TrEMBL record:
Keywords: ATP-binding, Nucleotide-binding, Transport. SMART domains: AAA. Residues 2-233 form the ABC transporter domain. It comes from the Bacteria. It comes from Pseudochelatococcus lubricantis. Signal peptide: none annotated. Pfam families: ABC_tran (PF00005), BCA_ABC_TP_C (PF12399). GO terms for molecular function: ATP binding. The keyword tRNA processing does not apply. This is Branched-chain amino acid transport system ATP-binding protein.
Length: 236
């Protein structure tokens, strides 16, 4: 489904991603892990088209690296942002209509109703998205907007952060449901090891922009290089 070959991103003198390569099979849920500043969001920005890196990004065998943002969305790449970004002055439903027009290039009210109902936002559909939603509802809207573009690959950036444990468990169940209901391949950035173990079929770990581990969550979290990257022992 997705293949990254030698992806490198530099911001001036800082190399945020260095020669990152891995692939992802259809239907996988991949955990993207690493300490703060490791390059996780930068990697999402390169896959979704906000940043053009050196290297190749292949979606179903086609190099999408030169495609602009909206064409990347139309190719089937949907994403959420770490800080929910609803469109101001629009209702929840209107946010989804705009996302669908941008990403899918069409208006399908039936699909929007399905997403609203699936993400438990039907009751909030006519509310102002920026001012009348609680944090959990905003997080659900962030995912709903990504679903409205009709993705095949969904990139979730810390969607579980800030939720207390009961809400987190419920949200995790919702993610598992949407994975099967919409037939998605998912990459999720998440710091909590238990969540990765529970949700993901595989994990890759970044540290200082380099991929340092790639395997099952069990393998990855046993890896001494990964443990060192979190404890800082490698740099002590
Ligand atoms: N637009 C930018 N300009 C300059 N430096 C940047 C830019 N975006 C990110 N960086 C730097 O690139 C590195 C990787 O940042 P990134 O946000 O991708 O890390 P992250 O793993 O997502 O971190 P976190 O877990 O804190 O969200 C950091 O050193 C960051 O300061």
């Amino acid at each position: 489904m997705l293949k990254l070959e030698g992806v490198t991103v530099r911001f001036g003198g800082l190399t945020a991603l260095r020669d990152v390569s891995f692939s992802l099979a259809e239907g996988e849920i991949l955990g993207l892990v690493g300490p703060n500043g490791a390059g996780k969001t930068t990697l999402f920005n390169t896959i979704s088209g906000l940043i053009q890196p050196q290297g190749r990004i292949l979606l179903k065998g086609v190099d999408v690296n030169r495609l602009p943002l909206h064409k990347r969305a139309r190719a089937g790449i949907g994403r959420t942002f770490q800080i929910p970004q609803p469109m101001h002055h629009l209702t929840v439903r209107e946010n989804l209509v705009v996302a669908q027009a941008f990403g899918a290039g069409r208006h399908d009210p039936g699909r929007i109703d399905e997403i609203l109902s699936f993400m438990e936002l039907a009751r909030q559909a006519e509310r102002n998205a920026a001012t009348e939603l609680a944090l959990q509802e905003l997080k659900r809207l962030e995912i709903a907007k990504a679903l409205a573009i009709e993705p095949k690959l969904l990139l979730l950036d810390e969607v579980l952060a800030g939720l207390e444990s009961q809400a987190k468990r419920q949200f995790m169940l919702k993610l598992k449901e949407l994975h099967s209901h919409f037939g998605l391949t998912i990459v999720i950035v998440e710091h909590d090891i238990e969540t990765i173990m529970n949700l993901c079929t595989r994990a890759v770990v970044l540290n200082f922009g380099q991929l340092i581990a790639n395997g099952t969550p069990e393998e990855v979290f046993r890896d001494p290089a990964v443990i060192e990257s979190y404890t800082g022992a490698a740099h002590a």
